[in-house]
């Protein structure tokens, strides 16, 4: 098995960026989901409510996140000096407000009030205690630093769909090839290059998988979620992929070998 592709998502729920290497820090992939969108109640906003956010492209230029907002142009995201409490799922964390101009432009595009917030190094959000006993941290990702998926599982799913879908629907960080479909269900510990990952929780999927990453529109037939629900529904939800935490900093690159060190019997 080896790494097929890698992605980072500088802003939670905006378009991701395919990369050839992931540099890891305490948060996970460096720069991954350190930015987030909030509404006027300082609660996180995603494609679940605003699928058109998929049309907002992101890039990294000279160490700065740049967003390309349709009909509005390009904006650099730079943290300001004002901090505020923000909510992501059940967590309350401190965020640093971003430049107002980018927020106003995105608000015009989406037709609702939005602001960019940044999680700096001093802001601490803990990985879900129910699944990870060690005090690991995470940025604004839903709950864990990594999402690991299996290319063969996508191909098996596509064999059941009328129209094949792209892996981008599932917003992974690490895509692995060379395994059988759904083999990831039993993986518990793996080594990728010089990095060891603990796969701690199956990833429960939601309506965001129905958003076309090229158009920002939800599938009217609720695919692929409807098909997945027919054979991948568990007590933990409709499952595709595995959430993971890392045991150390390091680097993961496309083409790195993948070794499963521990799995369920």
Task: Please tag this protein with its features.
globular, 265 residues, nine-stranded mixed β-sheet, mainly beta, 3 helices, four-stranded antiparallel β-sheet, 19 strands
Please state roughly what percent of the residues sit in beta strands, choosing from under 5%, 5-15%, 15-25%, 25-35%, 35-45% or over 45%: 35-45%
Order of helices and strands: EEEEEEEEEEHEEHEEEHEEEE
Count of distinct strands: 19
Label the overall shape: globular
Question: In words, what does this structure look like?
Answer:
This protein is mainly beta. The protein has helices at 100-110, 151-158, 225-229, and strands at residues 2-8, 17-19, 21-25, 28-29, 35-38, 57-61, 64-69, 73-77, 79-88, 91-98, 115-118, 146-150, 174-177, 187-192, 195-204, 233-234, 237-246, 250-253, 258-263. The strands form four sheets. Strands 1, 2, 12, 13, 14, 15, 16, 17 and 19 form a nine-stranded mixed beta sheet that branches. Strand 16 (233-234) and strand 17 (237-246) form a beta hairpin. The chain starts with a strand and ends with a strand. The mean pLDDT is 96.
């Amino acid at each position: 098995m080896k790494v097929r592709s890698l992605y980072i998502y500088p802003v939670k729920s905006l378009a991701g960026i395919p990369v050839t290497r992931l540099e890891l820090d305490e948060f996970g992939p460096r720069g991954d989901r350190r930015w987030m969108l909030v509404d006027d109640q300082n609660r996180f906003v995603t494609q679940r409510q605003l699928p058109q956010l998929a049309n907002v492209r992101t890039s990294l230029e000279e160490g700065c996140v740049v967003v390309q907002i349709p009909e509005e142009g390009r904006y650099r995201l730079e943290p300001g000096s004002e901090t505020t409490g923000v909510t992501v799922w059940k967590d309350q964390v401190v965020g640093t407000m971003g430049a107002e101009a980018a927020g106003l432009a995105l608000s015009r595009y989406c037709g609702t009030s939005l602001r960019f917030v940044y999680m700096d190094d001093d802001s601490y959000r803990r990985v879900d205690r129910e699944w990870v006993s060690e005090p690991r941290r995470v940025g604004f990702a839903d709950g864990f630093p990594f999402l690991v998926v299996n290319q063969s599982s996508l191909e098996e799913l596509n064999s059941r769909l009328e129209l094949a879908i792209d892996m981008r629907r599932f917003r992974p960080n690490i895509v692995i090839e060379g395994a059988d479909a759904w083999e990831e269900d039993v993986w518990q510990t793996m080594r990728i290059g010089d990095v060891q990952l603990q796969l701690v929780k199956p990833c429960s999927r939601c309506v965001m998988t129905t958003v076309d990453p090229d158009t920002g529109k939800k599938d009217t037939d609720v695919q692929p979620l409807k098909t997945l629900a027919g054979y991948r529904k568990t007590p933990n939800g409709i499952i595709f992929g595995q959430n993971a935490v890392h045991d150390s900093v390091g680097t993961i690159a496309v083409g790195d070998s993948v070794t499963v060190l521990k799995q369920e019997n």
